[in-house]
Specification:
The chain is mainly alpha-helical. Among the domains are: 227 residues, no CATH class; 173 residues, no CATH class. The protein is built from 22 helices and 6 strands. The strands form 3 sheets. A two-stranded antiparallel ribbon has the order 1-2. The protein has a two-stranded antiparallel ribbon with strand order 3-4. Helix 14 runs parallel beside helix 16 and helix 19 runs antiparallel to helix 20. The longest helix is centred in the C-terminal third of the chain and has 31 residues. One of its GO terms (molecular function) is DNA-binding transcription factor activity, RNA polymerase II-specific. InterPro entries: Zn2-C6_fun-type_DNA-bd_sf, Zn2Cys6_DnaBD. One of its GO terms (biological process) is positive regulation of transcription by RNA polymerase II. This is Zn(2)-C6 fungal-type domain-containing protein. Keywords: Nucleus.
Length: 595
């Protein structure tokens, strides 16, 4: 077989090679080029031509007799600029651009190697400590039960795909094919491929989704239709719903992470086989473990996205482990510190992954009553002012402020009373100012006092991002009210008498009332916007945090309503709330009717 390179000057490069910016090498007596044969692609020849001969400014006299169009003698021609860049800016091509991370490599950060080593350790420990779905040891799954992970690599992949070196010098793997940070291509963009499919052409050979079975299609569909809403609650453009699945088509490990999450969620809300998720999870961890040892893995956006997806899976697995070990969360924290500035600069999916990870960190900190992890470049990456901005900027102003308050409430207590009171005053002033200056459309569409059959008010919002912003504002106020340094003056001293005891009791009563007011508002928002799982998740974290404020006579109705809300949340969204229910029942004792 003789290989013949296409001569210069001929535009005969096939579409698959052109999309991947690689040399198209033809073979004598063959219809397909070498690359398409080795990768089992359909080789489609491209014939794009630029007819400069029709432009008199290029060939004023020579080509006039051969022109296909006729123009007036007085035709005015626009003079082109000296430097032109011809761009075929189709959706298909944009999804194949290489990484633009030259300005953000591991060498630009002095602690990149340390972060990489810590990430490798976290991934390794996650693989060892991850529980099975049941307490018994799970044997290898039969092929009929779990087909997709074993066949997730593209069929008939040749050596070029197994070890392909990128133009940036990084090693690519068939199990981890990197794609660009800004591949914000929606799945609908592949519709253009159907225009060149003939009636006798197998359409599956054109699909870029690389799905191998109906089960994989079902899992991907469930992610897009249901789970994506978990992730994109603070992203108006919904990158993790529209962009991530299409990106995962060229990254099998990211795709398997999506399958693992979808399978686990389906097993939580229905009778889907829970072992399927375990199989995908093992495949993902096995693929990630060698990747995190690469020098440039710490800056890989696909690795960040996969870890964010696995973190949500880890939260769903709390019902199996009995606690949140935060293994994947630690990996997310390491990747965020390495990629924060680059993600904000790149925007798109990269920025969306950072924002989701921040939201996950806040939720975990509330559940554990701890400060959030320290993140680099937060102040430079996000606008913390009150200047006019888009919805996401306004939302993250209050979310980042919530992180500051968590650090104030649960961080190391090294400040004296005067310093603590001053910082508390600054936090309260910021929260009140955000509430006063937030966009008018962030306010509820409708509010009403609690109906007779519920202790929670009716509060409806227009969009998810407004719901979560309002909830975080209430969380900020709950934390500040319950950690007010001035309350210390209301507690009795060692030699205090009955007067101090009464002052302390009155102070605690006022705190309980104020906290319960905000908790009722959060529960009302969650129940009025029950379709939004993230709102129910936030309400779960808050009732666990504030359960002790609902101890006392006359609060049994509210206790029962909170437990009913948690049960509804678990049944509807599959979110594990049983541990929270058990905790609340234990501290409420005989005051809780539901046991």
């Amino acid at each position: 077989m003789t290989s013949v390179e296409v001569p210069k000057g001929r535009s005969n490069c096939c579409l698959p090679c052109r999309d991947r910016h690689i040399k198209c090498i033809t073979i004598s007596n063959e219809d397909s080029c070498v690359n398409c044969i080795s990768h089992s692609f359909t080789c489609i020849k491209d014939s794009i031509q630029f007819r400069h001969g029709d432009n008199p400014s290029v060939a004023p006299a020579r080509g006039t007799g051969k022109r296909q169009q006729e123009f007036d003698q007085g035709q005015v021609w626009v003079k082109p600029a000296k430097n032109l860049h011809w761009i075929d800016d189709t959706q298909e091509l944009r999804t194949t651009y290489g990484h633009e991370d030259d300005a953000w490599t591991a060498s630009t950060r002095p602690d990149a190697e340390n972060l990489r080593q810590r990430l490798a350790a976290e991934v390794s420990s996650a693989g060892r400590d991850r529980p099975a779905t049941s307490h018994a040891v799970i044997s290898p799954l039969p092929q009929s039960t779990l087909q997709s992970p074993a066949t997730s690599s593209r069929a008939s992949a040749g050596p070029a795909e197994v070890r392909e070196y990128s133009s940036r010098g990084g090693l690519r793997s068939s199990e981890w094919t990197r794609s660009p940070p800004n591949s914000d291509t929606k799945p609908s963009s592949i519709a253009s491929s159907y225009l060149i499919i003939g009636p006798n052409t197998d359409s599956s050979s054109f699909s870029r989704w690389s799905l191998q079975s109906a089960q994989e299609a079902y899992l991907m569909q469930h992610y897009v239709q249901v789970i994506g809403k978990f992730m994109d609650v603070l992203d108006p453009d919904r990158h993790f719903t529209f962009v991530l699945p299409y990106r995962a088509a060229s990254c099998p490990t990211l795709q398997q992470a999506i399958f693992a999450l979808s399978a686990r969620h389906l097993s939580r809300i229905g009778d889907f086989d829970p072992y399927v998720s375990d199989g995908y999870s093992r495949k993902v961890l096995d693929a990630i473990s060698p990747m995190v040892r690469e020098s440039n893995a710490i800056n890989d956006v696909d690795l960040l996205c996969a870890t964010v997806v696995l973190r949500l899976l880890e939260e769903l697995d709390v019902s199996l482990t009995g606690y949140d070990n935060e293994r994947q969360l630690k990996g997310v924290q390491l990747l965020m510190n390495a990629q924060m500035s680059a993600a904000i600069a790149n925007g798109g999916l990269h920025q969306a992954a950072i924002c989701i990870a921040l939201h996950q960190e806040v939720t975990a900190a509330l559940m554990a009553q701890r400060p959030t992890a320290p993140f680099l470049d937060l102040d430079s990456a996000f606008d913390r002012s009150f200047a006019p901005a888009d919805d996401r900027t306004w939302a993250f102003r209050i979310i980042l402020h919530c992180m500051d308050i968590l650090a104030f409430c649960y961080g190391n207590d090294t400040q004296d009373k005067v310093q603590s009171q001053g910082e508390w005053n600054r936090h309260m002033e910021y929260a009140k100012k955000w509430d006063a200056l937030q966009p008018t459309h962030f306010k509820p569409m409708y509010e009403e006092k609690p109906p007779p059959d519920s202790p929670f008010p009716l509060i409806y919002f227009h969009r998810p991002i407004q719901i979560m912003s309002a909830m975080h504002l209430h969380v900020c106020l709950i934390l500040l009210v319950s950690h007010d340094p001035s309350l210390q003056t209301g507690y009795p001293s060692a030699g205090g008498g009955i007067h101090n005891l009464r002052r302390a009791a009155q102070a605690l009563k006022e705190v309980d009332e104020r906290v319960r007011y905000h908790v009722r508002a959060i529960c009302g928002i969650a129940l009025c916007n029950m379709h939004l799982a993230s709102a129910m998740i936030m309400s779960t974290a808050i009732v666990k945090l504030c359960g002790e404020h609902f101890i006392g006579e006359g609060l049994q109705r509210e206790q029962d309503s909170i437990l009913e809300m948690l049960e509804l949340h678990e049944n509807k969204h599959g979110w594990p709330t049983q541990l929270v229910q058990n905790y609340l029942k234990s501290i409420w004792g005989c005051n809780g009717a539901k046991r």
